[in-house]
Amino acid sequence: MQAIPVNLARSLLFFAACIPAGYLLWQINANTLSGDHGEAVQQFTGTWTLNFLLLTLCVSPLRAITGQHWLLRLRRMLGLFTFAYACLHLFAFVGFNHEFSIAAMARDIVKRPFISVGLAAFALLIPLALTSNAAAVRKLGGRKWQELHRSIYLIAILACVHLLWQSSFDELPRALAYACLLGVLLWWRVQNRKQKATPAIPSRQVQAIRFYDKRPD
Ligand code: HEM
Fold first, then answer.
1. Would you say the pTM of this structure is higher than 0.85?
2. Domain span at residue 18?
3. Which residues of the chain have pLDDT under 50?
4. 147-181 pLDDT, tens per residue?
5. What is the model's pLDDT at position 208?
6. Distance 43 CA to ligand 1 centre (A)
7. What is the rounded CA–CA span in Å between residue 186 and residue 153?
8. Which residues form ligand 1's pocket by a CB distance below 6 Å?
9. Ligand 1 centroid to residue 154 C-alpha, Å
């Protein structure tokens, strides 16, 4: 893909990724959110944080399967949208649900321990968001940067635990569907790493095989 279509894909992705937030704002403004508003905002933003997190993890397998290398250039934006929706989700908890009362938040965290798992996932997202620019890659060096950004797998596992832990019996199928999707994405990465780690046949051996293949019997 040429430079302009990649830029176009990026712009389209940017607008598409803003749609859920825009829809939420519209619902708040039109007062059409169902049930408890704080809870609805919390659920909506949590769902979209997880959607963007898993979409970010889909980029590498999609690139490998389709051979469309330009897809990698969308990954950073997807990662940053994950962080942006996570910030909205945290803000819903702090501002909407607890009106900035530290005591009320602490009580809720003790009462619902799955919130601590969400907090851990959020804390791990911060360094990834802060080092998502090219300057940070240069400063850290490629290898260190990659090692740091591997924590995305732990974040995704924590996010699925956070969801599974809070799900009631009828909400379990959805939580399990997310966990299965994450399982497939992690399994693909393990297979991919194993394949890369398999040493290629040294060229001298290849030549010997070719030589014996061509010899008349
Ligand atoms: C990467 C970080 C996080 C992800 C991916 C995430 C994801 C989710 C998801 C998918 C839900 C379920 C939404 C639904 O039922 O439709 C949820 C709910 C919730 N999350 Fe998170 N979360 C994260 C971080 C946090 C943080 C930092 C907090 C608070 C400090 C938090 C507090 C909550 C609460 C209280 C709910 C329950 C809402 C309700 O049903 O009342 N989460 N989260």
1. yes
2. 3-214
3. 206, 209, 217
4. 999 999 999 999 999 999 999 999 999 999 999 99
5. 54
6. 6
7. 8
8. 39, 42-43, 46-47, 49-50, 53, 86, 89-90, 93, 115, 118-119, 121-122, 125, 155, 159, 162-163, 166
9. 16
DSSP string spanning the chain? --HHHHHHHHHHHHHHHHHHHHHHHHHHHHT---S-HHHHHHHHHHHHHHHHHHHHHHHHHHHHHH--GGGGGGHHHHHHHHHHHHHHHHHIIIIIITTT-HHHHHHHHHH-THHHHHHHHHHHHHHHHHT-SHHHHHHH-HHHHHHHHTHHHHHHHHHHHHHHHH--GGGHHHHHHHHHHHHHHHHHHHHHHHHHHSPPPPHHHHHHHHHHHHS--
What is the count of structural domains for the chain?
Answer: 1
Give the pLDDT of residue 217: 47
Ligand 1 centroid to residue 121 C-alpha, Å: 10
pLDDT at 213: 52
What's the gap in Å between 102 CA and the centre of ligand 1? Answer: 18
